[in-house]
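TL;DR need structure tokens for one chain.
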Amino acid sequence: MDLEARAHSEHAHELRLWLRLLTCSQLIEKRVRTGLREQFDTTLPRFDLMAQLERHPDGLKMKELSHRLMVTGGNVTGITDQLVAEGLVERQAVDGDRRAFRVRLTPGGRSAFERMAVQHEQWIVAAFEGLSPRELEQLHKLLGQVKQHQLDINQRLGPEAE
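>> reply
TL;DR here they are.
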């Protein structure tokens, strides 16, 4: 049973919409997780970490990675340790800070990530094949409005809203 099944017609339409968005997100994520595991013997958190590093060829400090991935430093350290052991990422000392390390993709890690990213994009495209280009554009625009409204609310509420 998915989250959407919890909603009933007497619930606010907005609540039912929220649950539908969550359900869609979970179904797509499940497909991506399964595909990464079956085709690349990896996990979504590992893919996400490599995606951050791919966007920053000079690497990122562990703290920056943790912030960007919205996970604890311990989670980033564990994933990084695995990827280092596999030769997909490397740690480099940060000048002037003996405790900090910068993490970046190795050439092999970049190549592996590029293969995964192509397939990841195909999975996402397939998830939306049931919509026409016009419908995709409408959905993107509408969700953009929801996003902007939430950003406005969060800005009014201040840092405690995050």
